[in-house]
Design goal:
The complex is a heterodimer of chains A (314) and B (295).
Chain A (H helix, E strand, L loop, with lengths): L10 H42 L6 H6 L3 E2 L7 E2 L2 H32 L2 H16 L2 H19 L8 H25 L3 H9 L4 H12 L1 H17 L2 H6 L24 H8 L8 H35 L1
Antiparallel strand pairs in A: 1-2
Chain B lengths: L1 H24 L7 E6 L4 H10 L4 E5 L3 H10 L4 E4 L5 H11 L3 E16 L6 E3 H8 L24 E5 L4 H11 L9 E4 L2 H10 L3 E6 L7 E7 L11 H5 L6 E9 L4 H10 L2 H9 L13
Parallel strand pairs in B: 1-2, 1-3, 5-9, 6-7, 6-8
Antiparallel strand pairs in B: 3-10, 4-8, 4-9, 4-10
The chains are: A mainly alpha (314), B alpha/beta (295).
Chain lengths: 314, 295
């Protein structure tokens, strides 16, 4: 019976109490994640509410006009169109680069290479994820900027393409690791059956693995998109931060060497010095709310897609 | 038992806070403390001054001119740094709340230089041309219109570099070139800092931008600025700021609430002495003219 240590009086109570406290602590840490997310949302919503519920706010102007001019205060206008377009375009460019490379790498890692190369590759890819975003920003600002101006003839080195490449490199690790998991989840019997029918390795990948893992691959891409949309520091440093629409009605429809400005970068650049509680401050929080909504939809979709896989497996 | 545990931890936390406050406030010596907050433009030099000053502990923080003035009105700081003058509204608010007016001290000047790429042959530019280049209503979008051909800039489009809209530099350049109600055009590459802006211009042959004169590198050059067509082009320097010939320079201020007394008065004297003013030159600002410095 000496399992419960004896101290002066009420020892059993103390042990039980300790159990209870630990239990409560675990509950608290579990629920705190949920509480934090909701309080962050409540905070952003509260700060933005003055703008969101103001009768003067013209929503069609907010969504479809490019004029984001917080000064002079008396005639300030808050149009987020260019920033929404900027965020969409840079994410698009980043994904056009990151998705083929990411999926290709995942196929290589999970299907083609020897265990030794596989380990090396995985470490290198994980290293990519460990580089802080401000460092990526410097790569874009100093190196890519120079390369784009001197070798690609870009007029401005800080532009859509620069930001797109940096974001592609940043979202690559997420895409590769989730896509690799998706390929791993495809049962070996599929591969064996295909090979038994005489399929080449490439045919196995293309005809069997891709269709079988398509939900996981979609989730990988969506989480990559989420990463790209939410990135702040790197895009602030390498996209030029210019209220510009890179899309055009003429060929090639998207001017990749145009500077752009994203939602995240605008908040980062202006919130620090906007007078607290002013209309400008509230409008910036409204941008935050918009971003929150975008990321929420993307992550929810990715989550539902992943859940789709799990059900198929069971 | 639980309540005992709670009380213990509470006492612990309280004790820690107390010891921390005492540690900060007392510090052993009997020096008075001066709280100083405001403009990020002035932050670097204000920190330098605080470090050099021995007679009091001066604590400096940034946050912007508006933040500093608001803190002065609220009574949380003794001295506010500002790269713009106190607005009428703010002065009135201070008088209503505290019964004292903010008292202004000019502690130096900041001249905004016009930067272009080093290969750009442009020599001088008028304030109205700057307005036509940077303003929303402006019509000058191409270097052709100014009669300039730049090697390495094939498109001839003027690439505009500016600061983010919450910076004091943005606000000063806007009112100085476009007037109080004027608006900048939309397609300006807003850089997050003076150094970033100069780097951007240095990397971009077609670019033109504005920033404090202290940030010049070998990749960029200054453009002479003319008040109007009739006047001569002027480069930013201490001399041209003092004799008022350089059109885009602004005074930098420190504000106290009411006429300063004691330690604060001495500090306001100190920042305007010659050795303190030399710190301004070192980081690229313009000091007061000799006859305005305190002895």
């Amino acid at each position: 019976m000496p399992l419960i240590p004896k101290t002066d009086g009420g020892s059993i109570h103390w042990t039980l109490l300790r159990e209870k406290i630990i239990e409560i602590l675990i509950y608290i840490s579990g629920f705190s994640a949920i509480i934090f997310v909701f309080s962050i949302f409540a905070f952003i919503f509260k700060e933005a509410s003055g703008f969101v519920f103001s009768h003067e706010t013209d929503w069609s102007f907010f969504f479809f006009n490019a004029a984001w001019q917080p000064l002079p205060e008396e005639s300030a206008t808050y149009g987020a169109f260019s920033m929404i377009i900027g965020t969409i375009s840079v994410t698009l460019v980043a994904m056009l680069i990151a998705v083929p490379f990411g999926l290709g790498l995942a196929v290589l890692v999970s299907e083609f290479c020897s265990p030794k190369i596989k380990e090396t590759l995985k470490i290198v890819i994980e290293l990519l994820a460990a580089i802080p975003s401000v460092v990526w920003g410097f790569v874009g600002l100093k190196l890519m900027n120079y390369v784009l101006v001197n070798f690609f003839g870009a007029q401005v080195g800080s532009n859509l393409f620069n930001g797109g490449i940096v974001l592609a490199l940043m979202s690559l690790p997420i895409i590769v690791s989730i896509a690799e998991d998706a390929f791993k989840a495809v049962p070996d019997s599929y591969r064996e059956a295909a090979e038994a029918l005489g399929a080449t390795k490439w045919q196995v990948v293309y005809k069997v693995l891709f269709p079988a893992a398509k939900n996981g691959l979609l989730a990988a891409v969506l989480l990559g998109v989420g990463r790209a949309v939410g990135e702040t520091m790197a895009v602030l440093m390498c996209t030029g931060h210019n209220l510009n629409n890179p899309f055009s009605s003429e060929f090639p429809f998207l001017n990749i060497f145009d500077p752009i400005r994203t939602l995240t970068a605008s908040i980062a650049a202006e919130l620090g010095e906007a007078p607290r509680g002013s209309e400008h401050w509230q409008a910036l929080f409204a941008l935050g709310l918009l971003l929150f909504a975008i990321i929420f939809v993307i992550n929810l979709t990715a989550d539902l897609v992943v859940r789709g896989i799990k059900q198929e497996e069971s | 038992m639980l309540s005992k545990f709670r009380v213990l931890s509470l006492v612990g936390v309280l004790g820690l806070t107390l010891s921390l406050t005492v540690g900060c406030g007392g510090g052993g010596d009997e020096k008075p403390a001066i709280q100083n907050r405001g403009s990020d433009t002035l932050l670097e030099v204000a920190q330098q001054w605080a470090e050099d000053y021995d007679a009091a502990n001066v604590e400096v923080s940034g946050g912007g001119s508006g933040v500093g003035i608001a803190a002065l009105i609220a009574g949380t700081v003794d001295v506010a740094n500002a790269s713009r003058a106190v607005k009428e509204k703010e002065a009135k608010e201070a008088e209503e709340k505290t019964g004292k007016k903010p008292v202004e001290f000019i502690v130096g000047y900041d001249a905004l230089a016009i930067y272009v790429h080093k290969d750009n042959p442009i020599e001088e530019i008028t304030v109205s041309q700057l307005a036509a280049i940077f303003g929303q209503a402006g019509e000058v979008k191409s270097w052709d219109k100014l009669g300039i051909t730049i090697p390495g800039c094939d498109s001839k489009d003027i690439v505009l570099a500016g600061r983010q809209s919450s910076s004091g530099t943005y606000e000063y350049f806007r009112t100085a070139t476009l007037g109080k109600e004027g608006k900048f055009g939309l397609n300006i590459n807003e850089q997050n800092g003076s150094r970033a802006l100069v780097t951007f211009v240095g990397n971009t042959p077609c670019a033109i931008g504005y920033s404090g004169m202290g940030y010049k590198t070998d990749a960029v050059k200054f453009v002479k600025v003319k008040k109007d067509d009739a006047s001569a082009g002027v480069l930013p320097s201490a001399v041209t700021v003092h004799d008022n010939t350089y059109p885009i320079a602004r005074p930098l201020f420190m504000y106290t609430l009411g006429e300063p007394e004691g330690a604060i008065k001495e500090y306001m004297h100190f920042v305007r002495t010659k050795p303190s003013q030399e710190n301004l030159t070192e980081i690229g600002y313009v000091p007061l003219p000799e006859d305005k410095m305190t002895k």
